[in-house]
TrEMBL record:
Domain of life the protein comes from: Eukaryota
B30.2/SPRY domain ranges (all copies): 127-331
Organism in which the protein naturally occurs: Coilia grayii
InterPro entries, per the entry: B30.2/SPRY, B30.2/SPRY_sf, Butyrophylin_SPRY, ConA-like_dom_sf, PRY, SPRY_dom, TRIM/RBCC
Gene3D superfamilies: 2.60.120.920
Protein name, UniProt field: B30.2/SPRY domain-containing protein
């Protein structure tokens, strides 16, 4: 117990240190972005102020001209010298024309091309940042593993596609050969190949479904009879997340953990990450990389197989198949 307590304290300490380091890096990134934003906005403000000063100067020149014209008109109205009046009229017209030419608003232009370039660079920066976050998405994509379902493991009321990348429920009992690996009462199917080392990530499209179970299992999971341990997560040899009519539960050793933080939310994809070095099985709403639940097994005792259960028809609301996705490809974060 002392050793376990010490281990727990060590794990918590290391996790806190890592969290603090990552937090500081995010704070550094925020400072960099805030400073870049400040510089960009300051530059735009300076350009706007320069243009505003020019416009104010031009307005003053126009106002001075109108004052001068008013004075000349007053003088002309009292002048009896027609020639002088004619000369002044000509001089005034020339000055008006010159001032209007110099203060033409069309001569004051914003550098639209430069501004469009600035906006384009800002958009590119945003797209780049979005392509890198959440960082867990980029990390898990590097662990993406191919999953091919084994039709010989599927319950007779399940149809596995020829490619092994989807499974759907049917009311019709399929004429399939009986074998030791086939589930005969639970609507499960497992992958052909498992893994015994490393880190692995895979995603399943669950859009449009009202009932499903996804997880990992040892090959030793019971496959025959009505034992509860045949269900994913009900025994010590499997882990799963179950979705039913808007509610989520994480299962292991027959214990359900209600996931109230995502209750009522619908995800298009569910991601499953496993780490044999860390003994972890983690579930995520892959659309936004929302954490659902994480199990720590400590040390896995056998090879792990990917496992799926598309569920029954659920009163006609659950006919959509479960589709294995290419988890290495980027998808928009909603």
């Amino acid at each position: 117990m002392k050793k376990l307590s010490a281990k727990q304290a060590d794990v918590n300490k290391k996790t806190d240190i890592l969290k603090e380091k990552i937090k500081k890096k995010y704070e550094d990134m925020k400072r960099v972005l805030d400073e870049d934003l400040r510089i960009t906005l300051t530059q735009l403000e300076m350009e706007a102020e320069a243009t505003e000063r020019v416009i104010e100067e031009q307005v003053k020149r126009c106002y001075a001209l109108t004052q001068h014209i008013d004075r000349q008109l007053s003088e002309l109205s009292t002048s009896l010298d027609r020639q002088r009046s004619h000369d002044k009229d000509t001089e005034t017209e020339e000055r008006i024309a010159a001032t209007l030419k110099q203060t033409d608003p069309e001569l004051i232009q914003m550098d639209e091309f430069k501004n469009e370039q600035l906006l384009s660079l800002t958009i590119n920066l945003l797209l780049f940042i979005r392509s890198q976050v959440p960082v867990t998405k980029k990390l898990f994509q590097s662990y993406a593993s191919a999953v091919v379902l084994d039709p010989n493991s599927a319950h007779p009321k399940l149809i596995v596609s020829p490619e092994g990348n989807s499974v759907s429920y049917t009311d019709t009992w399929q004429e399939v050969p009986e074998n030791a690996s086939r589930f005969d009462t639970t609507l499960n199917a497992v992958s052909r190949e498992g893994f015994q080392e490393g880190r692995h990530y895979w995603e399943v499209q669950v859009d449009g479904k009202t009932y499903w179970e996804l997880g990992l299992t040892y090959p030793s999971i019971p496959r025959k009879g009505r034992e509860e341990h045949c269900w994913l997560g009900r025994g010590s040899d499997s882990w799963c997340v179950e979705y039913f009519n808007g509610s989520y539960n994480a299962w292991h050793q027959g214990v359900a953990h209600e996931l109230t933080h995502v209750e009522g939310r619908g995800f298009q994809r569910i991601g499953i990450f496993s780490s044999r070095p860390g003994g972890l099985v983690c579930f995520l709403g892959a659309d936004t990389m929302t954490p659902l639940y994480c199990f720590c097994a400590g040390t896995f005792g056998d090879k792990l197989l990917q496992a799926v259960c598309p569920g029954h028809d659920n009163q006609g609301t659950n006919w959509q198949p479960l589709l294995i996705c290419d988890a290495s490809r980027s998808r928009p974060i909603l």
